[in-house]
Specification:
Distance between the termini: 38 Å
Largest sheet: 2 strands, parallel
Radius of gyration: 20 Å
Number of domains: 2
Strand order of the largest sheet: 1-2
Order of helices and strands: EEHHH
Structural class: mainly alpha
Strand content: under 5%
Number of strands: 2
Helix content: 55-70%
């Protein structure tokens, strides 16, 4: 059994989540190494609501918070911010 995050081949644009293995390369590797797929089940419709939620949390909550924190630290605590960036 194998379960992973694949990206569809030939789709233009990038996902906010990024990553993913090429589904075409996966199928080629399976065939080249003599493996057989007994059942190919796409669970995208079951998983996509969770991915949508993760994307919303990142874009609507975490990124705005980080930008606000960066502005605050840049104005009020430049020394502390420089220290944090140095040890990043």
């Amino acid at each position: 059994m194998s379960s992973t995050f694949f990206k569809r081949d030939g789709v233009k644009g990038k996902s906010h989540l990024g990553g993913g293995h090429s589904i075409g390369e996966f199928y080629e590797t399976i065939e080249k190494n003599g493996f057989k797929i007994h059942k190919d089940l796409d669970v995208t419709s079951k998983v996509s609501p969770n991915l949508r939620l993760v994307n919303e949390i990142l874009t609507d909550r975490i990124l705005p918070f980080i930008e606000t924190l960066d502005q605050f630290l840049s104005k009020r605590h430049k020394t502390h911010l420089s220290f944090l960036i140095y040890f990043q």
